[in-house]
Specification:
The structure holds two protein chains of two kinds. By secondary structure, chain A is mostly beta strands. Chain A has two helices and seven strands; from the N terminus they run E-E-H-H-E-E-E-E-E. In chain A, the strands form two sheets. Chain A has a five-stranded antiparallel beta sheet, covered by helices on one side. In chain A, strands 1-3 form a two-stranded parallel ribbon. Chain A starts with 6 loop residues before the first strand and ends in a 7-residue tail after the last strand. By secondary structure, chain B is of the alpha+beta class. Chain B contains four helices and six strands. Chain B starts with 9 loop residues before the first strand and ends in a 5-residue tail after the last strand. The relative contact order of chain B is 0.21. Chains A and B meet through helix 1, helix 2 and strand 4 of A and helix 1, helix 3, helix 4 and strand 3 of B.
């Protein structure tokens, strides 16, 4: 069995400038179906009613790519609490599109006894490199399960 | 959905964020295996240790409601060249009913104030959005 070379998800290992990823995937119609249903979305832009090849993925369907980037690099830890999020929507993501997501830790800081980090990540078309979304999560790292 | 003229507040339909909706959301996103263990969204003890009275809804789920509301209302003017930025200011316990609100900073303006309220009219998320010139 291959050794797990990931490092512990801990404040001392979350370094500003640390590059994460890339990850690659194809935007799934099945996931778009589930995600749209969860939000009660009936907009034909995002549902199976869209003309073939034109269906868009709901705009935040792949927001959790940040978690996949983290999990590919880090192990353990007790997660975090979402404090802020921003997204630039450059080009709609399409169902069936092959995409590449990569990110980096852009900032870390302490405030009122809590450790914060910002992770900025970009999703691009895997073939053309066209930028689709750029976004960032700011989270409070839980240490031992606590916000400290 | 309240869909007033430019300058007036837009309000979404009420969204009940209970355990079923949370599970459906968790099942609809691709999460790393660790996320499927007990965490602040699914386990009372984990939530308590993190300082919450009970498990809370994922911030991403609430963010998704805001983004979808803006995408449905403004289409490509939001999806191509738009921007959304929020702060999660209050935890959302399961059972809360949420409404998304958006109001142009000035009538006809592409800059919007956005927020999410619970059924007690408390703001749980605040932020801003920007539309592109493609309208």
């Amino acid at each position: 069995m291959a050794e797990d070379e990931r490092i512990l998800m801990a404040a001392e290992n979350l370094k500003q400038g640390l590059e994460l990823g890339p990850i690659f995937y194809v935007v799934s119609a099945e996931q778009a179906d589930k995600f749209s249903r969860t939000l009660g979305c009936t907009n034909p832009l995002f549902t199976a009613d869209a003309p073939p090849g034109s269906r868009l993925a709901p705009p935040t369907m792949r927001l959790q790519d940040y978690a996949l980037l983290i999990a590919a690099h880090f192990k353990g830890g007790s997660g975090g609490v979402h404090a802020k999020h921003w997204t630039e929507f450059h080009e709609p993501v399409r169902v069936g599109q092959a995409v590449r997501t990569a990110g980096r830790i852009t900032r870390t800081w302490h405030r009122r006894g809590k450790f914060y980090f910002e992770l900025e990540y970009e999703t691009c078309d895997a073939v053309s490199g066209q930028l689709l979304t750029r976004q960032a999560i700011t989270a409070i790292l839980l240490r031992g399960g606590e916000m400290r | 959905m309240n869909d007033g003229p430019a300058g007036e507040e837009l309000i979404s339909a009420s969204y009940p964020l209970g355990h079923e909706a949370a599970k459906a959301y968790a099942d609809s996103v691709e999460s790393p295996p660790r996320y499927r263990r007990e965490n602040i969204h699914s386990d009372a003890e984990a939530a308590r240790r993190a300082g919450f009275a009970a498990p809370i809804a994922a911030g991403e789920h609430v963010y998704a409601l805001v983004a979808q509301f803006l995408a449905d209302r403004f289409g490509l003017a939001f999806l191509r060249g738009g921007r959304l930025a929020v702060t999660f200011i209050k935890p959302v316990p399961y059972g809360d009913r949420l409404t998304v609100h958006a109001r142009p900073v000035r009538a006809g303006n592409a800059e919007l104030e956005v927020w999410v309220e619970n059924q007690r009219h408390e703001r749980v998320v605040t932020g801003e959005a920007r539309l592109s010139k493609e309208r």
